[in-house]
Design a protein that fits this description.
By secondary structure, this protein is an alpha+beta fold. The protein contains 14 helices and 16 strands. The protein is about 35% helix and about 20% strand. Strand 14 and strand 15 (about 370-375) form a beta hairpin.
Length: about 450
């Protein structure tokens, strides 16, 4: 039999070390059965632990201190004089060796044999105060300047970021099982087109004569990949819009497929989101009632039925959005998929032949947030060009319109001329999905490094 690979050996070794540490750590993962108490390997297993000291409890002869690594907090024990000799305190990063044991009250502890200080932060006194408060004391600086410190001391924020990580992992796994290929999409684009959005303009020293923008959507390049022969492709990445603080930078999962029509894709995305919600059930930061709500089948409805407004080709973008604002603010406490949006809001979607003025495009709303969209995409080059022309004319007299947002996407039009199969697409807003699951309203509460601390847009 061939020897195990180095990678497998490293993974197995890391898993075993984590298992040993987790078994004897403080908290809900601790094995507290009577069998563990009676047969614990006290003094027999040497365990290595690297992490940051987050709390110290000094007693006359013994000192307990908690060390946090990437997984959880571990309760450690040393003699008080021995601990003083280590020369460490709250916020220091340490590496220690110890043996699993029990305190007099039966709590699991790691009796420290040796300890080395790896790093001491500057401004240790203020960081110690933040640890004790469990939150960052505001300094007046921007959110990003103090973000690492805030993640370090705020356990609630760390737990929400763990929810975000698991949700992303679940969505990726679901799309892999459904046969989607993950692809990367350019962040810098030459077309300002992004539906109704405004984009950030860029300057290039080497390409001074070329207009450049941060991408506002992943849709166009994914559609071009379908033209080029991919059946199902998706990208998980940031999009950027020069609008509200929440939309300056936001994480999306966008996908395109020629294997599913819009109706099939609605069912598929519903299952993907349900799986992501169930994957974080029981996480400390998750509101379990939100998980249960997202696990229920989506209610299906239409834009006209929800808003009472009729869609027509002459409707302005602002009026179409305003018609939906009331129902969104009222909540949508259970997931609702609202289909057949006005065509004026859907320049890349196929027109609904059964209902004039509507497009085959819809959104899923939940807890007052627009979580995802699903579209039957426009696949005909000439019809797409005609849509661009009509929409430029429809906003020509609107002084508040973002006119550069309606520019032609020439790359997409050229690709569609090569021939495009019928296809549908979807987009899942990761920030909003995590916000809904954790019951928060500020984008900064679910994003690792937000540009600003802003409320979630509805």
């Amino acid at each position: 039999m061939a020897p195990p690979s180095i990678a497998k050996y490293v993974m197995d070794s890391a898993t075993n070390r984590y298992h040993e540490a987790a078994t004897w750590s403080k908290g809900k993962n601790l094995k507290n059965s009577q069998a563990d108490r009676d047969h614990s390997p006290q003094g027999t297993l040497l365990t290595q632990l690297t992490g940051r000291i987050v709390a110290v409890r000094r007693m006359k002869h013994s000192t307990f201190f908690d060390v946090r690594n990437s997984q959880q907090e571990h309760q450690c024990l040393a003699g008080t004089s021995e601990y003083d000799g280590f020369g460490v305190g709250v916020a220091d990063i340490v590496k220690l060796h110890g043996r699993p044991s029990r305190s007099r009250t039966g709590d699991a502890v790691l009796e420290v044999d040796s300890l080395v200080c790896l790093s001491k932060p500057s401004g240790q006194e203020s960081l110690t105060d933040d640890f004790r408060a469990g939150a960052l004391r505001r300094t007046g600086r921007s959110v990003r300047q103090d973000r690492a410190r805030e993640i370090l001391v705020d356990s609630g924020l760390r737990e929400r970021l763990r929810v975000r990580i698991r949700v992303m992992r679940s969505i990726r796994q679901s799309l892999l099982e459904l046969g989607f290929d993950e692809i990367d999409i350019p962040v810098i684009v030459t077309s300002p087109f992004a539906g109704t959005a405004n984009l950030f303009r860029l300057n290039s020293a080497d390409l001074a004569s070329v207009d450049l923008y941060l991408r506002g959507s992943l849709e166009s390049h994914l559609k071009q990949l379908i033209v080029a022969g991919f059946e199902s492709a998706y990208c998980m990445g940031a999009s950027f819009r020069n609008e509200s603080a929440e939309l300056h930078e936001f994480l999306m999962v966008e996908g395109m497929s020629s294997r599913f029509d819009q109706s099939q894709l609605i069912d598929m995305v519903e299952q993907v989101i349900r799986g992501a919600a169930l994957s974080v059930r029981g996480f400390p930061a998750v509101a379990n009632n939100r998980v249960e709500a997202l696990a229920t089948p989506w209610r299906r409805d239409t834009f006209s039925a929800i808003t009472g407004a009729s869609a027509n080709e002459g409707a302005s973008v602002k009026r179409a959005y305003d018609a939906l604002r009331g129902p969104i603010s009222d909540g949508f406490r259970l997931p609702v998929f609202v289909d057949k949006f006005p065509a004026v809001l859907s320049p890349l979607a196929q027109r609904d032949e059964s209902l004039a003025g509507n497009a085959m495009r819809g959104y899923m709303f939940f807890s007052g947030l627009r979580i995802c969209e699903i579209v039957q995409e426009q696949a005909d080059a000439e019809e797409q060009r005609a849509v661009f022309e009509a929409q430029k004319l429809s906003i020509a007299g609107d002084s508040g319109a973002k006119k550069d947002s309606w520019a032609y996407d020439s790359e997409l039009l050229e690709a569609l001329k090569l021939g495009c199969p019928p296809l549908s697409g979807f987009g899942i807003h990761i920030n909003r999905l995590v916000a809904a699951l954790t019951d928060v309203r500020r984008v900064s509460d679910v994003v690792p490094f937000p540009l600003a601390s802003g409320l979630m847009a509805r």
